[in-house]
Structure formats: structure tokens, C-alpha cells
Amino acid sequence: MAVGSGGRSLLGPLLAVNFVVYLILLGLAGWSLDKYIDGEQNHPHLGGNPSTIFLLIFALIAGVIGACSVFSGFVHRRVWNNASLASAATSAILAWAMTALAFGLVCKQIIMGGHRGKRLQTLEAFIIISGLSQLLYLLLLHAGMFSSRFGPAYHG
């Protein structure tokens, strides 16, 4: 087995899943924000409470940064060296941090209660899924610290 091929074989499917999740997240958040801006807060599929607008904005930002992180991950998977690892890890950390902020707003949204439509509940679920899958991707990128079997070595 070549050096680092253990992590490389897992990285491709995880990146594909992350990309699909972030695209769905962007679609749902974009649709919901459009309805919210048009004044249709009482739309049967939207609903919400005072924290909804913040959730939608942070979900869009997290989705865009997450999708960019996936592109950086695909480049790292292709090149597979320390320089590409640094850029992939940096963008993955930023994407996970923004997704974690959106996750916090999901928690606030659920705690505040009120009518939450089906699409808003679906958006909340996809934010939770994207946070967990991004964390798994981030851990897989940093697995090279423990063994060079999982990726480019972290030694200088």
C-alpha cells in the first residue's frame, strides 16, 4: 500500500457526500431567504421565529464556504502533498466553524419554538448533517498526524 493511500481512498466519497449536502443546504437556504425577503414568513413551508433570518444568512455563508472547502479537498486528493494539505485543512476548518455557528442557530431556532415549516426543518437537518460530515472530513485530513498511512506526513 502506498504512503497515504488509506486516507486518500476514504476522502473521495466523503467529499462527494459533503458536496451534495452543501448544495442541498444552499438550495434550501436560498429558497427560504427569498421567501423571507419577499415577506412570506407565513408560507406553509417556511414559518419560523425571530432567529430565522440569522439562521438563513449563516446557512448560506456556511454552504458557500463548505462548497469551496470541497473544491480545495478535491485538489488535495489529486495532488496529495503537504502544500495542498495545508490549504485543504485551512478551508475545512473555516467551513466547519461556519457550519458550527449555523448549528448553534439551529439549536436556538428549535429552543425558541413556534411554527417551523417542513423546508425549514429540512434545512435544520441538513445543517446538522453537514456539520457532522465536515467534522469527519476535518478529522480525516488531520489523521496524517498520527500515521503517515492516512495522508502526507506532518513532519517538517
Automatic annotation (TrEMBL):
A Pfam entry, by short name: AWPM-19
Record bears the keyword Protein transport: no
Segments passing through the bilayer: 12-33, 53-75, 87-111, 123-141
Keywords assigned: Membrane, Transmembrane, Transmembrane helix
Entry annotated with the keyword Membrane: yes
Protein's name in the database: AWPM-19-like family protein
Species, as recorded: Abeliophyllum distichum
